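Target protein
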Amino acid sequence: MSHGMAGRESKSRLDAYEAVFGALAHPARRRILLAVYFAHGEMSAGEIAAMFPHAWQTTTRHLQVLEAAGLLSHERQGRNRIYRLERKRLTLVTEWLATFFRKP
């Protein structure tokens, strides 16, 4: 493997960490993830929006950030959007935190 290729892979990994931690930085997005988790891993957009007093556009933006980070995905079912938790993506968080429990 060339050095350049390794550099691109690590940049990709760093970008993934930034996206995930950036998404988790906002309390409303953490609340969305917890709600979806406790709803057996999926909720409709309407159910998610009903949790918040803010405008639908704000909720939509939070959902877009979570999807861009790979933490949620959605599927259309008729007129509804069903959001699903992408648990595998959360392994980035546990991997990063595990760094602090290894000897340097």
Observations:
- The first helix runs from residue 3 to 24.
- The chain is about 60% helix and 15% strand.
- Confidence is low (pLDDT under 50) at residues 1-6.
